[in-house]
Each structure stands twice: as C-alpha cells, then as structure tokens.
Amino acid sequence: MTDSFDVVVVGAGSAGCTLAGRLAGRGVRTALVEAGAVVVPPDSTPIASLAATAPGHVLNWAYRATLCQGRECTVPRGRVLGGSGAINGGYFVRAVPADFADWGVPGWSYDDVLPYYRRLERDLDFCTSDRHGDAGPLRISRPSGRLRAATTDPFLAACLALGHPEEPDKNAGGPPGAGLIPTNAVDGRRVSAATAYLPPPWGNAEWKDALTVFGGTPVETLVLDGDRVTGVRVGGRTLHAAETVVTAGAVGTPALLQRSGIGPEDTLRAAGVAVAHELPGVGRGWSDHPAVFLPLRSGLPDPPADAVAAQAALNLDSGTDPAGDLEILLFAHPFAPGGPAHLMCAVQRPDSLGMLAITSPDHDDPPRLDFRYLRTTSDRHRMRAAVRIAAEILRAAGWDRAGPDDGGPAGWELGNDTRLDGWIRDHLTTSVHLSGSAAMGSGPDAVVDAGLRVHGLAGLRVADTSVLPRAPRRGPAATAIMIGERAADLVCGIEGEHRA
Ligand SMILES: Cc1cc2nc3c(=O)[nH]c(=O)nc-3n(C[C@H](O)[C@H](O)[C@H](O)COP(=O)(O)OP(=O)(O)OC[C@H]3O[C@@H](n4cnc5c(N)ncnc54)[C@H](O)[C@@H]3O)c2cc1C
Questions:
Q1: Is the pLDDT of residue 404 over 60?
Q2: Average pLDDT taken over every residue of the chain
Q3: Are residue 295 and residue 243 in the same domain, yes or no?
Q4: Which of 82, 222, 380, 475 has a CA 20 to 30 Å removed from the CA of 391?
C-alpha cells in the first residue's frame, strides 16, 4: 500500500468524510485516516438511541471536562467513521445569517456559504425553494405523520399561545421562532456524512480507487519540515502528502496541533512539547452551548421508537440578540437514556469562552477541557431567561411538574435569581456543540485564514467545527458538513464552482 497521497485528511467525521468523498470523487488521491472503527455497529444507527453517548462506549472518546467551577462531566464525541455525526441527535439546522455576519471573515457571509448548504442536501419539504437543495447526498425532512411525537404540536401551540412567532422553516435563514426541527435521519436511522458521502465500501465504482481509508489509526503528530507540513505520523510510519487537512473535530484538531508543536507556547511547554510554530489561539477562546433540562410531567404518550428525539424548538431573543440567543428544544425521547422527556434550555450565543490543553506529548493522553460556562453576568442572565420561558411553556402545555421531586426547578427557585443560579449550576450540562478551537480569521488568536490554511505554515489546513469563530446560534452538525463541502472546493482551487 502506498504511503504517498495528494491529500491526507485526518479524522473521518462530519467534515472529514464530506471532504474526502468530494476530493476522491474528483480524482484527488486521498487518504482518510480515522482513529476509531470504520465499521459502524448496526445497533448504534437507530436515531432514537443515544447509547453511544454513554461513557465507555467504544464509539465515544468520552472526555472528562469541567463545565464550571465544581461541575465535572464526561463529554461524548464520536470516535468512528462518521465522527460525532454517527452518534448525534439528528438535529440538522443551519447557522443563521447573523452568525456569519458576527464572524466577519471575508468570503464567509451567509450568501457565500448558502450554495454549499444547498449542495449537501435534498430537502424533501422545501425542495422548490431557492434557499434549498434538491439533489444533495443528505435527505432532510421534518417530523411528520407517524414520526411526529404526540407532544410536538402541543409544544408548538404553547409557544404560539405565549406570543412567540412561528418559524416554519428553520433552514430558511429567517428570524427566530417556534418550528419543527429538520433532521437528516431517514426511516428512523442516523445518516452520517460517512453514510451519505462514502457509500460502502467507501466510494463509488468510478472513484473509489482514489480513496484509501485507514481505520483504527490515530494520527500521533503532523510531520513538519521547517514551515511546511509534509504528512502525518501513524503507528511508526509516515503518510506523505502535498497537503494535509485536519478534520479531527473541535477537540481532536487542537489536541493534534498542540501535540505537533503548534499552539500557545505556555501550553506546549507545560505538556513537554517543543514549540515548532507558536499560535496562541489553538485550543483557546472556543465556545459551546450551556444547557439544562426541564422534565415533562410523566404519563404523556411515548413517541414511536424510530422518531427523532429533537422534534421542535423555540429559538428566541433574550433581549439583546434579535437573531436568537436562546433555544428551547423539545426532546420527545430523553437525551440521557431512561429519564423523562424534556425541554432542553440552552444559551446559543454565550460570551464565556473555554480552554483546551494537552497534558503530555502522548496521543493516548486525553486533553484537559475547561468549558468555563456561565462566567459572565450576561450568560447567567440568559440561562435564567431560558429556564423561565421553558417553565412557562410547560405550564401552557399542561406539562408542568407532577411532584416536588421530578428534577425540575421548584417555584421558589424559579422566582429567585440566586436560587435559580444554584439550580442551574447543579443541573448544568453541555449541548456538545464545541466550536472555535482553531478559529478562522486574521487577528492574533486566529489559527486559519479564510482559505482554511493554518497561518504561517504551508501544506496544512483545518476544515471542521474548530474553525467556526464561535459556536453558531443553532447546532453545528449541518455547518460541519457545509465546511467539508467548501473545503473540497478550496483544496481543489475551484472556489466559486458550487456543483459536485
Ligand atoms: C452525542 C452528540 C450529539 C450531538 N447532537 C447534535 C445534533 O443533534 N445536532 C447538531 O447540530 N449537532 C450535534 N452534535 C454536534 C455535531 O454532531 C458535531 O459538532 C459535528 O458532528 C462535528 O463535526 P466535525 O467534523 O467537526 O467533528 P467530528 O464529527 O467529531 O469528527 C472528528 C473525527 O476525527 C477523529 N479523530 C480525532 N482525533 C483523531 C486523530 N488524532 N487521528 C485520527 N482521527 C481522529 C474522530 O474519531 C472523529 O471521527 C452532537 C454531538 C455529540 C457528540
């Protein structure tokens, strides 16, 4: 087997599979290198099953993390062909125009990326709209018929009754409101970028010879020759490439860069890694959506086992963000298996920023993750607002607490900021939407430029959710695939050509 390729893609997740499939489809000799398994066990594909999110599951990196002072947790990330998209919830919503405007990266306005969002999808509900695609690899639909949970319409009705506007298509780039969640699940099964872009066994007959997939192969470090990256180190061998694209996800990517000597000097020295190229923003200044769950009362009808959990959401403005800095998401199945169905209340545009640092040069040692959630007054204010609005929705739908021990906040907690802050801290979790750990831009903390090239190094790009300067106001799964699509054009130098 050859060790030389045109492009090595590190990490076969949402962005990596998309990129590798598109490159190989154009005849680019591509190696796709994945740390996890390349065969997805069938029991992990039912969309309602979040079994692989449990710590210890073979498809899950399960990183230990600190969410805020005194609150530790284990954060799931996909470790398998398809990456986090192979174990996620199937909520498939684009970032909103204001996200791209806030990031302010030339060439990355909403209008610039819309062709890529369209190219990846076949939207069954809105295919005649010029905002949507009708021929992409991912089939997008919204809960309907048998697969719409009995709680979904009452949730939407309660939102409207409380005066919140409707958002009929959450992928139209319009103002926030209440509406159904688009999903990429099909027939009750999870469809990852691997399923969509790399048909088994990894490619179409016309182009699969251009693609080599390495499974169970963690990339230990990048190989540098001066200021040029020439390939990657895996299990005592080097894979050489004219170009290396790191798509190891928002945890794996900064960890690999740091292990390779690319990152903040103090972090590298503390971990015992020689500094090859100082870039202060690697692993710093990222964000994610802090969240808490409010349970629905017991006794409501269970949804069908093959229905998606995340059925509908209210996106709204806490008072300072017309594009919607809060999300209240109806989970018809519980996120954590075994519990009650619930509303997930999340701050979608947090100000608090996290830190990631490797602790040694060894690729087997997991990085340290410090989310630093709810550090700012504004974030605590937003989180309280989300919980109180969710409690109003529960009341309006007739789903509020059945008893004092159902796990939700009591009236005396909801009515008092200090007590509610305490309840939130005790129940705090993460949406698992980490973004921005190798951010795109031109400032001192930027890691990649608008072409996704790592500043100051030749032959190296990053193309995954690490590059988003902040977590988008909606979940990042759709945006990760959009980045993979766009990276394929950038690598091939055909920016502006939007068709496959
Ligand atoms: C449990 C869970 C539920 C989620 N639910 C949703 C949802 O419903 N909707 C939504 O919008 N978002 C959701 N997300 C987030 C979303 O799925 C991710 O943000 C997105 O898939 C990230 O894509 P990515 O390409 O950046 O990284 P990933 O898809 O995580 O891919 C990274 C890949 O790189 C591999 N890798 C890492 N390090 C190395 C290395 N050194 N060598 C080789 N390979 C390596 C990993 O094993 C992985 O396969 C969820 C995430 C999780 C974990």
A1: no
A2: 94
A3: no
A4: 475
